[in-house]
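Supplementary Methods S3. Input chains for the assembly prediction are listed below.
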Amino acid sequence: MTNHWIDIRNSDVVLVMGSNAAENHPISFHYVLEAKEHGAKILSVDPRFTRTSARADIYAPLRSGTDIAFLGGMINYILNNDLYHKEYLQLHTNATFLVDPRFRMPGDLDGLFSGYNTAKRSYDKSTWDFQRDADGVPKSDPSLQDPNCVFQLLKKHFSRYTPEVVSGITGTPVKKLEEIYRTYGASGKPGKAATIMYAMGWTQHTVGTQNIRTMAIIQLLLGNIGVAGGGVNALRGESNVQGSTDHCLLFHILPGYLPTPKASLKDLTTYIKKTTPTTNDPQSANWWGNRGKYITSLLRAHFDTGLGAADEFGYQLLPKLDDGQNASWLMLFDKMIRDQVKGFFAWGQNPACSGSNANKVREALSRLDWMVAVNLFDNETASFWKGPGMDPAKIDTEVFFLPVAASFEKEGSITNSGRWAQWRYRAVKPLGDSRPDSEIMTELQYRVAKRYRDEGGAFPDPILKLSWNYGFRMPDGRLQELDIHAVAKEINGYFLTDKVVKGKAFRKGDLVPSFAYLQDDGSTSSGNWLYCQSYNGHGNNMARRSHKDPSGIGLYPEWAWCWPVNRRILYNRASVNADGVPWNSQRPVIWWTGSGWKGDVPDGGWKPLSQPGTRKSFIMLPDGVASIFGAKMKEGPFPEHYEPLESPIKNNPLSGTRTNPAMKLFYEGAEKLPEDVYYSNDKRYPFVATTYRVTEHWQTGVMSRNTPWLLEMQPQLFVEMSPELAADRAIGHGDMVKVSSGRGSVEAVAIVTRRFRPFKIEGATIHQVGLPWCFGWETKNAGDSANLLTPTAGDANTMIPETKAFMVNVEKLS
Amino acid sequence: MKRKAFLIDTTRCTACRSCQVACKQWNKLDAEATVNRGSYENPPDLTPLLYNQIHFIEQEQGDDLRWLFINRRCMHCADAGCVKVCPSAGALYHTKEGLVAYNREKCIECHYCVSGCPFDVPRYDAKQKVTKCHACSDRVQNGLLPACAKACPTQALSFGDRDQLIAEAKAAGKKLYGENDLGGLGVLYVLDDEPGTYRLPKNPAIPASIFFWKDVVKPLGILGFWGAVGVAALHYVTIGPKKLDDADDQPRKGGE
Amino acid sequence: MQLNRRGFLKFSGGAVAGSVLGIGLKAAEAEAQPLAIQYARETTTICPYCAVGCGLIVHSRGGEVINTEGDPDHPINRGTLCSKGASIYQLRHNDKRVTEPMYRAKGSNQWQKVSWDWALEQIAERIKTTRDATFMEKNSKGQVVNRTDAIASVGSAALDNEECYLLQKLLRSWGLVYIEHQARI
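Predicted structure tokens for the full assembly:
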């Protein structure tokens, strides 16, 4: 979230799309209804009428996988009706920038942008760039009139997304589209704010990143980024998925979103040089210019501090990917099913149910030599060898199950969706012989290191030089007890030598006050620069419990701690005009007093944009402004509608380019696997399907199917469908049905409901069904995972699987 | 002590069902085995282990659809049929706060309260003792909110001084159900439609014969002499057809 | 004597009903009931389910959880909870929680209970053996990569921040690059 949960109450319009907040983030609805009480309009856009829709002012249905068309139509509406916030666009975005005149768009190239290479399924992006002056600074036209300026290109591109065209793709009645567009577009007035609450309903598509970009463009056009009640707000689904992302349990990034080393980044100097963004614009803060300080401080926290500059502070101890190697989720299991993975940790995760195309995942697990499953409960991953269709006698995978403490049986912090890191205390000892995860990690660290120390082995240095100084070390080298506070402090970082920074003298061993003090000479450590300030000289800021809210807009700056540097609303310098005066005087986030900023921690403390010595308001981007034109995307600088990998229609109504031209296709070429098959516009699988969660369960259900009170309320897999589809297939309410895709099938109870309606798509009737993915065979009579149906396909930019739009058949079971 | 009550504003409910679980957690009520019957609604009815539940009601309005949610539980009536009919003094009673609680040790397992209730609320557990929502009387006596009301994220369920809840709802222009029925219900509703749509009786009433029991037979029971006659009369009342308002005749839409 | 409805009718038929009916007819005043959580230890925590980050209070007595409810001082949830948050008592009082390490041998059709020491020692042995056998100092282009592609890890967004940090640090020290978790899916 750029903003945070409480801030939703500050909105004038709340769009819930790509999420189902009332069901999956129920407490957020306290704030949605508070906004509604103050006159805000609540909009719900979803293929299915949900508990969110039940409380919305306007509900609009859309076919799964057509969000870009829906939102593209909104961009067109905003531009045609002059609803955009012009001054905001000029100050804070690249709308004014002039693009290379050779740049071409899908309207001209049948669905493609200029530079596409069919064989490589990727773009040569050389035309996706700005015209630059002699200093290399992008040229711009503040009047927004130049035909090559971003604004005019945007207008041209989305002029194709008329309500009629959009309705033909999404199945949303034109009247509903216009109602939503008009209501949301009204927030373009300075002083008005609208927010978007989205979640996996947007990310789990082959065009997931572009779904979100489309909305980000809308928010920028309407001046809704940085303001109270605005922002682009991802409602994250697990209690610490924000923190686990920040700490980068991901193949492509190190803690604090630093890129992982790759083979061509052969040494630390090269890494810093090649991965640090540059700018020629003196008004751009280009905060990532600090990359060198952050990676150096990270290395200092990871490895023996005896390693010096000559040792690159241990850079060579980190593993390096091959250039271009994608080690993301879908690739990981693809490699596993091809017998290329021998050992596997499923640490607090249940991929046998959560992985798209779960049959492939389950089969892949059987190819392992060994697996370590760490969890509170047994689950479909740990026990895959006794699952449906498995013959244990033929499965050679050894499995170790390690039972862990529950959240309230240990101490530590977690970070919520609004980036608040909050401390939890231990209420009781771990149940039985279960142990906190951190203790298990410490044991494994010690035991593996001991073997390398005693026996030697392949490149032992990273193992032997890893620092693990989190408590009193006993004579045999074991930690007597892991002190989780010592870990939290290491994440924050220390001064490793006496040092004067910004006129302040620090002693060796002092905690670093905040990331502005981190150094690239090895004199500071910080396990994660983004969390530098979380645990400093003031103590454990994550444990703070003050109710002070001087802002009056619900920032609660002394409750817990929030990254970065306790800034509660990101990009908040876009909430003011060039003189530092808030667009909304009633709900100001920050304001310029003449000598300094008041309110939230400003996103860059420089003077207002009209004053000399200022820096632009989007400090993390090299151009200093928000990207309406986003050349970093794989499939184009503007979003374009493409059909899901599996779609009910033969052609993309907008162009001859049917699916995302830059996504990886698995079921192609000589090495394709039958598991990855897909069927588009195929009579055998005529119905659109989507997956979702329910209030009563959590993720794959391991922590909710095993809590009887929750299972009592939602005991069994169901499939929701319209009465029309049910009648067509002679399915009665409550009947058991079989739902099948090209990859698997599940048995489910039919819920026949008007909450699903047939869509009119290009004149034809298209049915859609939906299933929750929280069930699994380990729970008796509950049914199995809906991910047995979902395909092996991923977003072109993130490789997040497309589990929200695929094709199935539904039959009544006799 | 001012009379306390619940105010259930159905227009704020998101059917998250924290009320169902928070109640079970505080009152330590086990879960029951259920199946999906083509509905989110589960368990299907109040049970000895389920003191309150959310009904899910789908309703078409022209092109639009409404999904209505309502929390169902003991109504804590002032003129409570169950208390009236209960032959064991102190088994069912009004607390100082005006809520209908019970003392299971005094319950004589007669089940009369079941028939005396116009809302079909009391249940008997495995030990044949009465159970139902008692508004967490232990919490309320100690100054805490009932578990369900405390847990409710959207203030669909609020609890407080009855007069004040009524005054605030009226000031906000909301129409109330239960203000005057049965001496004034201890559970007031803000509804978005007719009571029948929510499976509520339009004019809830205790069967007339219960008055006969309460006001004529029961006092005479002191004499002992009339006791058996009284019970026979009650037998007629309780076994005879219990007529609720036509709430159940509302067509139940698919997928509720 | 079991007094179900039928039994009672029979019972009253014996005209002994007076003993049942003949005492005070006025509503009884409740005796003050003790509060189950009185004098319990209160510990604040944050809900382990979604990422709203609601505060909870865990009441415990004698080292055991006796009650869990919303933290009224928490500015986000103000004492409220959803159904999942309201259920965390059952994460503790739950006979399905695994409380001892288990091992499933090759070809076996069952779990067996094992000691922590044995399990951790076996796992350490597997890590080292697999790592040593598959470690790549250089890739096919001759570039230094120092990694193994033969061990992978997924998880977890259910870990605390400190644990996430420790886990990635540990896995990367072993040379893993196939490190993924819930955020990708």
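Chain C is about 25% helix and 25% strand. Confidence is low (pLDDT under 50) at residues 1-30 of chain C.
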